[in-house]
Amino acid sequence: MSKYDLVVIGGGSGGVRAARIAAGHGAKVAICEEYRYGGTCVIRGCVPKKMMVYASHFAEEFHDSASYGWSTTINGFDWSTLIKNKDQEIDRLNGIYIKLLENAGVDILHGTGSLVDANTVAVGNKTLSADKILIATGGTPFMPEIPGIEHAISSNEVFHLDEQPKSAIVVGGGYIAVEFAGIFNGIGTDTSLLYRGKQILRGFDNDIRQHLAQEITKKGIDLQLNNNVESIALTNDKRKRVTFTDGREKVVDCVLFATGRNPATAALALDKAGIALGRKGEIKVDQYSRTNIENIFAVGDVTDRIALTPVATMEGHAFADTFFGNNERLADHDNVPSAVFSQPPIGSVGLSTEEARDRFDNVDTYTSEFRILKHTLTENTERTMMKLIVDADSDKVVGAHMIGPDAAEIMQGIAIAIKAGATKTHFNSTVGIHPSTAEEFCTMRTKD
Ligand code: NDP
Q1: Residue 363 structural domain
Q2: Is 331 within a domain?
Q3: Are 249 and 266 within one domain?
């Protein structure tokens, strides 16, 4: 049996980072992955999704370019070209992940890892003895049990559809649903977005949610709120007949369920080591990412803390530094910024107005809503919204939100300011970059 200081189960962002850093600190490390190195984000998540968002947004750019003097002839969109080029790039990134591990001296295994006991991991016919075990197996799409769900796809399959669907229903109101509704709509698929609640993106600032709903509706998405899928049946020509809870029906080429993700623990045989799970089936961990078993740790989506790639890498890195680098560090889950690559995109950090009002006695909000300079020459009616949320007693900016072009790029810098404890006075005294959209964050003076 091979003996290791650390065996990592799962070759996504969190697992690979932890393995590399621990090996760099001198530990003997093995890692196993059952699908492809790179994990959800690189293989069938953030990275290919963003490429598809770029692909889809060109339609609007081509249209707008006419007002800037360009004359373009568009001969349609070729799905297979996009998928082929995207797959090539994903293959390259997959190779880079493997190279990074090789260069760090990590033993790389291909296969499903499971626990034999608290110090032993089985991968295929190999058995590895481990001083410490790190579980970083991520999540899998959740599909509700409704009649005909087998005719729907999840975000795993959407990246490999043979053809562009002419029509699609996207179910859900979270990150993945609004992102794919935007992608389909931009490339010319007749798209409905179906959400069971009152407004999409629960948990985000209410004004931003409302604004996105308006903008995507303007762009042509058929947004149906307070509605859900009751059942799906195949038609004679292999299309999908979807019956909604409001009683109506629609026949489409593709039904995509983006209804959340569950921690991926099924294959791990966690009971062999007695690892405790939480209510959603997530592996429960403490601030050091340690499970209830002394030498077994978990990072990333499988722990259901904040399901974002950079959070998983932060947790994996902190774990490796703490336990193999003699440098005790905790992952910091405060003020984690995120973006939704809807069209227009959203960037967000800190508290929403609603959360801030729950937490502080006196909250000031500043909102700006306008058409960006680029759109003023065009017929594009898209409007941008920016918000700052301030704890009036301390003057601290406790939340910043934006919906509009480049929101993710802009919000990264704002997140650093908020992480550093910036006050509204700091924002006011920062000189804007002109002409830019981002400068608005420095010029908002009038309270809502
Ligand atoms: P989310 O948890 O964000 O959203 C799930 C959505 O599905 C919610 O709107 C939820 O409704 C709805 N839903 C849940 N169950 C059902 C059901 N039975 N029937 C109908 N609707 C249902 O999950 P996603 O799948 O969008 O994404 C998973 C995670 O991946 C995200 O939380 C995010 O952390 C991460 N991610 C991040 C991205 C980014 O950073 N840009 C991009 C993509 C994913 P309700 O609100 O009522 O619960």
Answers
A1: 338-443
A2: no
A3: no
Pocket test for ligand 1, best of 259, 262, 346 (most atoms within 8 A of CB): 259
Q: Which atom from ligand 1 is nearest to the alpha carbon of 177?
A: 26
Q: Which residues carry out catalysis?
A: 434
- pLDDT bin (cut points 50, 70, 90) of residue 318 is very high
Distance CA 291, CA 285 (A): 4
The average pLDDT across 396-416 equals 98
Closest atom of ligand 1 to 258 CA is: 25
pLDDT of residue 1: 77
What is the DSSP secondary-structure string of 266-294?
GGG-GGGTT--B-TTSPBP--TTSB-SST
Domain match, 14 and 111 both: yes
In this structure, which amino acid lies at residue 444?
M
Residue nearest to atom 25 of ligand 1 (CA): 260
**Percentage of residues of the chain with pLDDT beyond 90:** 99
Same domain, 161 and 229: yes
How far is ligand 1, taken at its centre, from the CA of residue 175, in Å?
Answer: 6
Residue 209 CA to ligand 1 center (angstroms) comes to 14
Say whether both 20 and 135 belong to one domain. yes
CB 411 within 8 A of CB 348: yes
Q: Are residues 240 and 370 in the same domain?
A: no
